[in-house]
Amino acid sequence: GAVVSQHPSWVICKSGTSVKIECRSLDFQATTMFWYRQFPKQSLMLMATSNEGSKATYEQGVEKDKFLINHASLTLSTLTVTSAHPEDSSFYICSARGQGRQYFGPGTRLTVT
Amino acid sequence: SQQGEEDPQALSIQEGENATMNCSYKTSINNLQWYRQNSGRGLVHLILIRSNEREKHSGRLRVTLDTSKKSSSLLITASRAADTASYFCATDRGTSYGKLTFGQGTILTVHP
Predict the structure, then answer these.
(1) To the nearest whole angstrom, how far is the Cα of A1 from the nearest Cα of chain B?
(2) Contact A91/B103, CB-based, under 8 Å?
(3) pLDDT digits (tens, 9 = 90+) for B86-103
(4) Predicted confidence (pLDDT) per residue in B16-53, tens digit
(5) Shortest Cα distance from B74 to chain A (angstroms)?
(6) Of B41, B99, B105, which is closest to A46 when you measure between CB atoms?
(7) Chain B residue closest to A110 (CA)?
(8) Where does residue B53 rank: exposed (0-12), middle (13-18), buried (19+ CB within 10 A)?
C-alpha cells in the first residue's frame, strides 16, 4: 500500500486564490520532505526541501513567498500556493525521506482558471 | 541545478522487443535511480544503483552505470504493452541524500 499520500489528488481553483496541498508519510517518520513540480510533458523540477521543524530551503528561481512550505510534524508537510495564477497549473509531487526510506507521493494536479 | 539528459526522448517498439534508454548527468553522485511514470500519474521506483556499482538487475530490468562517463542505461527486456510509460533517471548527489535531480525522460511506447 501507499506509504506517502497527498491530498487533494486534484484541485481546480480560481486565479488569485490560495491552495494548500498536504503530503503525509503514513508509516514512517519523514525527517525530510521534498516538493517537486512537473509541467505537462516535462520532467520533475525540485522546488524546495523541508526538514521537520525548520524553514524550507528553496531552489533557485522558486519564490518562497508564493510557495509556502510548512513541515510541522514528522508525518506532514504542506505546500500552499498563494495567489495562484494559471501559470501555476502543474502537477505537484512530494517525496518523504526518513528512517532510511524514501517514497514519492501520488501527486496533486492543480489547475488554475 | 542542471538536469541530466536522456535519450532517446521517445522510443516506439513492438511487444517482445528490448528497450534501451540512456541517461547522462553532470556531477558526481551517490546513486542513480530509475523511475517510471504512467501518463498523469505518480512515480514508481524501479531500481537504484550506487556509485560503486556497475550493473544491477531486477526482473526484466538491467541497469548499468559508468561513473567515468557519467552515464547510465536502463534495459527492459521482452517488453510488454504495460511497459508503456515515461521513464526518468534521477541522480542523488552531494550531502543531501534524497534530493534528486531528474533527467528529461524517455517516453516509451510498446505496441501490442
Answers:
(1) 13
(2) no
(3) 999 999 876 667 889 999
(4) 999 999 999 998 898 999 999 998 788 999 999 999 99
(5) 17
(6) B99
(7) B40
(8) middle
Residue of B1, B20, B6 lying closest to B92 (CA atoms): B1
A73: distance to nearest CA of chain B, Å? 18
User: Could you write out the DSSP letters of every residue in A56-105?
Assistant: -EEPTT--TTTEEEEEEETTEEEEEE-S--GGG-EEEEEEEEETTEEEE-
| Of B2, B7, B6, B21, residue with least CA distance to B77 | B21
Q: Quickly tell me which residue has 500556493 as its cell.
A: A81
Question: Which residues are bridge partners to B90 per DSSP?
Answer: B33, B102
User: A48-55 long-range CB contacts below 8 Å, 24 or more apart?
Assistant: A49/B96, A49/B99, A50/A77
pLDDT tier at B3, thresholds 50, 70, 90 = low
> Which residues are within 8 A (CB) of B52 and not within 5 positions of it... i.e. 6 or more apart?
none
Each residue's pLDDT expressed in tens, for chain A with a length of 113 residues: 668 999 999 999 999 999 999 999 998 899 899 999 999 888 999 999 998 888 899 999 999 999 999 998 999 999 999 999 999 999 999 999 888 778 999 999 999 99
Closest CA to B23 of B40, B39, B35: B35
Interface contact A49-B97, CB threshold 8 A: no
